[in-house]
Amino acid sequence: MREKLKELEEKAKAGDYTAAMNLAEALKWGYYGEASPSRAMALYRACTAAPSRALAASAWYNLGVFYYYGLLDEKTDVRLAFDCFMKSALLLPGKEALSRLADMYRYGQYVEQNDSVALHLYLKAASA
Predict the structure, then answer these.
(1) Long-range contacts of the stretch 65-71 (C-beta < 8 A, 24+)
(2) Where are the domains of the chain?
(3) What is the topology classification, in CATH, of domain 2-126?
C-alpha cells in the first residue's frame, strides 16, 4: 500500500495532475493507511491549475467540500466553500457543484435565501 502512495507522489511531483488528484483523495480519506487532510488540501489547490477543465473543476469542488464541512481544522467557512463551488460550476457545470450551490441558496448559507435560484440550480444539476 505504501508503494501505491509513493508511486502517486512521484507522478504528482512530475506534474501528473491525475495522479495528484488520486493522491489527494487517498490522503483525504486515509486510503492506503495514511490520512493527511492538509496535504490533500494542498494537492487540490495545486490541481486547480490543471489544464483539464474536468480536473480543475473537481479540485475546486473538493476544496469547497473541505471548507463547507471544516475537514481541515473543523471550522467551516461557507464563504470560501461557495466561492470554490462556484468556480467548479463555472469550469464544468457538474451536478455535485451545482447541487451544493443550490443547497446554499435554498438554506441561505452565505447567500441570501432564494428558492427560485435554488430550484434553477437543482434543475440544472439534474440535467448535467
Answers:
(1) 66/37, 66/40, 66/41, 68/100, 71/28, 71/37, 71/41
(2) 2-126
(3) 1.25.40
